[in-house]
Every structure is written in C-alpha cells, then in structure tokens.
Write a structure and sequence with these properties.
It is built from 20 helices and nine strands. It is mainly alpha-helical and 507 residues long. Strand 3 and strand 4 form a beta hairpin. The longest helix has 59 residues.
Length: 507
C-alpha cells in the first residue's frame, strides 16, 4: 500500500448464538450476523473470505466455517485489538504524569478498542492518574490472561524453540482458495518477475528473493482491501495481496474507451474477474505494469520476512502483532529507488500517481519525508504502526506481566518459564533489528541523497515525455510548464531548450 497495510482490528460485543440451531454445527452467515464494514475489514485482513451468499470461508481449511468458529475468530481479533490498545495506553501512563492534549487525541482514536470505563476515566476532568493506571493495568492483565489461557504446553514449547530461516509456525500454508486463483496468481508472479527484472534496480530487488539462483516471489492473491490500500504483504499468509478494485481498473484500462463501462460491469464479481484474467493473459501483464512500484514495496517486506525472524516471532506469539515503522521506511526507500531508476531508464513506463508524488517529496527532503511517513502511519494505526523502540517497550510490559503471573502448579511453572524464554528472545531480536536497520539504512540514505540532484532532470524529462502524449492542449501546456520548472531547477540548458522547442511547436 505504499506502506504495508495494517490490519483493522476492532472491539464489539460478542454475538448471541442462534436459539434454533446448535452453535457447534450452524454454518456461519456473516450477513445474518450483522458483520459491519469494520468487522469485514478485520476478517478479510486475517485471510477470511466473505462470500456474497453469506458463507465465511476459513483461511486454513478454505471451507465454510461454522458460526462458532467464526465467532471465535472475531473474539480473538477483538481481544487482540484491545490488548494492543491497552499496551499503548500503559506506555502513555508509565510516567504517571497527566496526559496532554496529544495523548488524549490518541485515546480518541483508540477508544473503539478500549474498555469504555477506562476511556471515561481518562477523559474525565481532574482525573487521578494513579486510578487510571490501576484500571488500565487490571484491564491489560485480563486480556493477557485470555491469550495465556488459550495456549497449551505444546504451543509454548514450539514458540520457545530458536527461530531460523525455515522455522515453521502457525502460518497459513496455501493462500489460494481455488485452482483458478492459483493459476492467476502464478501468472501474476511470473509477469511481476519479468517486468521488475527489466529495470537495473528491479534486478537487485528480485535477487534478494532468489532460491537456487532464481527469483522466488511470494504468492500473489487478489482480494478486497480496506480503504485506499493498493497492495499489502500479509506475513500470516506469506503472500502479497492486491486490491480487487485496483486490479479491475488496470484491466478496464486495456479496453477501448467506448467499451470500458461495459467491461467493468461484466467483471463486477470476483469469479468473473478471475476468469477474465485467466483467459486474457495480456491483462495480467497490464495489472503488473500498472502496479510494479507498489509490488517492489511489498516484495521488500517479503524479503524482510525471509531475512529477519521478526515476522516469524510475531506469528508464534513471541512479539506483539505490529508493523515496525523501520520496515516501512526501508520498503518505501526501496520503492522510490526503483521509481528513480525507472525515471532514468524508462520514463515512459512511470505512472503519474501518488507513488510519483511520494518520490518527489522524498527527493526534496529525506528527513522531513521520513518524519511525515512515520507520523502518517502512527496517526492511522497508533496501536500497530510503531517504531522498534516502542515495540521494545511493549515487549518489556509483556515480560513484566509474565514475571508477575501467579504460579499454582508445576505446569504453571513450566508455562511461565517457557513464555519468559520466548519473550526474552523476542526482545533480543528487536534489539538486533534496531542495530541492523541503522546499518542497512546508511547506504540507502546515501543513495537517495545522491539521486536527489539528478531527480530534477529526470522529472523534467518525464513531464516532457508526458506532454507529448497529452490528449488536450491545456494538459500539454501544463505538463510542459512542469517540465520546464524541473529543468530549470536542474540547471540543464539542453533540456530547457528541448522543452521550449516543444512549447514553440505547441503555439
């Protein structure tokens, strides 16, 4: 999504079971049970497939789930969202100083996932910070106990084993729901590898995913995404998810203007779109060409998953389910270096979209761009998009809570020891990530700083080329003006002359 999409998690009251059909066997119907848009986003972000007829397909079995199974999945999401929000509140209250306006604004964003009594206490005039902290600590202990109680000793032993590149874990082994989806996904993978490989920096991106000397891209699936998200790397499924609407728009763009509306209407269902992609391979290429920049971003996340143990530790429950902002920084820099290379070597292939706008912002101020990136992500998802230092602080809370856990039986003692071992290793992995990230970013930042001066010339040439294909004279004039501004900033006399020559022809 540019930035990787963060799953929208939620809080809502548990649903009442049907009075006429046993809960254990009743098939789930997400329409009947009142699943709203936020609930749908959380479920689909976790790999669930919500069909138009009401069936909820389990991401692990690919079969229709029972109401009991779906309700449990929703409850798990709710509790995880509450835990994440409470951990952020606990960090805010750690100093025992009164919360400022900025903190209370963040509480407002988190309020849907927090206990109402805690929100009321925080926002009450002249509230006692010690009372608020006691309420928050008690709430956090309860939600932590929910997850602790659901784990067996076997789960804990598996989580406590050292992590390595091939470590298995509770991840979904096959993201595709049908053979047709897999066929389209394989075509997308092959097309993405071919398209990205055309660019010099793209070759570097692909080489990071090599297996036996050949690029081994993750599966690519097409699903409805939340909001403006174009793509995301879902580490739970180890797959890249492309937004169905974005894919549909890329397909429709391949048709003549007079046929576009009819084609869009005919591909309104998932099944129709998948069938069309399968029987029209040229549209698969169009989808990739239209989204190669965001694919590079998500392929960088896939590389992070294979390279580092962080996502594997999250999947095993040893770290909070978060998205490190440092990972977003690295993936966004990689995406922009790829875009810079395309502007240099094949400017006609670059789309005029928000990715290009992001590139311009980065090239004209890397430090301010980084601050804006972190702020935007944190504002959108304050309990999930966190810098590594904040994740370490949350992890320290979990370690502290586990140490304080009461021991009654020998099994309790075993469970506590295993949990502390796993959590401690997770904390060490975070420390290692911070050190490694700083080392990795040094050459990337240097590459951006070196590309900065050259970007004005590249953008001037880009807008000149765009002007040549502009359908209207007003668009052509505006693009030539933009080209001239960049050419002047680059102080490139030859380019300025070419642009002015094009303006003269226009007049």
């Amino acid at each position: 999504m540019g930035p990787l999409a963060l799953v929208v998690l939620l809080a809502f009251a548990p649903r009442v079971a049907s009075a006429t059909v046993p809960v254990a066997t009743a098939q789930a119907d997400w329409r009947r049970d009142g699943v709203d848009e936020r609930v749908k986003a959380a479920l689909t972000g976790s790999g669930w497939r919500l069909e138009n007829d009401g069936r909820a397909l389990d991401p692990k079995t690919k079969a229709p789930a029972t109401k009991a199974v779906l309700d449990q999945a929703v409850l798990d999401l709710r509790q995880d969202a509450r835990r994440a929000a409470l951990e952020i509140v606990s960090l805010m209250l750690a100093s025992r100083k009164p919360l400022g306006l900025g903190d209370k604004k963040k509480i407002g964003v988190l309020s849907e996932d927090l206990p109402p009594e805690l929100v009321a206490a925080i926002l009450a005039p002249r509230s006692d910070i010690n009372v608020i902290k006691a309420i928050a600590d008690a709430d956090l202990s309860r939600v932590a106990a929910y997850f602790d109680g659901g784990r067996t000793l076997a789960d804990r032993r598996a989580a406590a084993r050292p992590v390595f590149a091939g470590t298995p874990g509770p991840r979904i082994s096959l993201p595709y729901y049908t053979a047709q989806e897999q066929s389209v996904g394989e075509a997308l993978r092959a097309s993405a590898a071919a398209e990205i490989h055309r660019d010099p920096f793209g070759k570097i991106v692909l080489s990071r995913l090599n297996t036996n000397g050949k690029p081994d891209l993750p599966p690519i699936i097409i699903e409805d995404q939340n909001g403006p998200v174009v793509a995301q790397y879902d580490f739970h499924r180890r797959a890249i998810v492309l937004d169905r609407e974005e894919v549909l728009s890329s397909v429709v763009a391949t048709a003549p203007a007079r046929q576009a509306s009819a084609l869009r209407a005919s591909l309104s269902t998932r099944a129709a779109l998948m069938s069309y992609l399968e029987t029209h391979p040229e549209t698969v290429s169009a989808v990739v060409k239209g989204n190669d920049v965001v694919l590079v971003h998500e392929l960088t996340h896939a590389w992070q998953d294979r390279r580092d143990p962080i996502f594997r530790e999250i999947a095993r429950g040893n770290l909070p389910d978060v998205q490190p902002l440092e990972y977003e920084e690295e993936a966004s820099i990689a995406k922009n270096l790829y875009l810079h290379s395309k502007l240099t070597h094949d400017p006609a292939s670059v789309k005029m979209d928000r990715e290009l706008a992001d590139y311009v912002l980065l090239m004209h101020g890397r430090e301010s761009w980084t601050l804006a990136l972190f702020k935007d992500l944190s504002d959108t998802s304050p309990s999930r998009a966190l810098p590594v230092q904040s994740i370490q602080d949350v992890q320290a809370l979990r370690i502290h809570g586990t140490k304080a856990r009461t021991i009654v039986t020998f099994e309790n003692q075993q469970a506590k020891a295993l949990d502390l071992h796993a959590l401690g290793r997770g904390q060490q992995e975070l420390i290692g990530l911070k050190i490694a990230h700083d080392i990795r970013m040094a050459p990337l930042n240097a590459a951006i700083d070196k590309a900065g001066p050259a970007s004005d010339r590249a953008l001037g040439n880009y807008y000149l080329i765009q002007a040549q294909f502009a359908p209207r004279s007003t668009d052509r004039s505006a693009l030539l003006d933009q080209a001239e501004r960049y050419a002047k900033a680059a102080r490139n006399a030859a380019l300025i002359a070419k642009i002015r020559q094009a303006k003269g022809k226009q007049e």
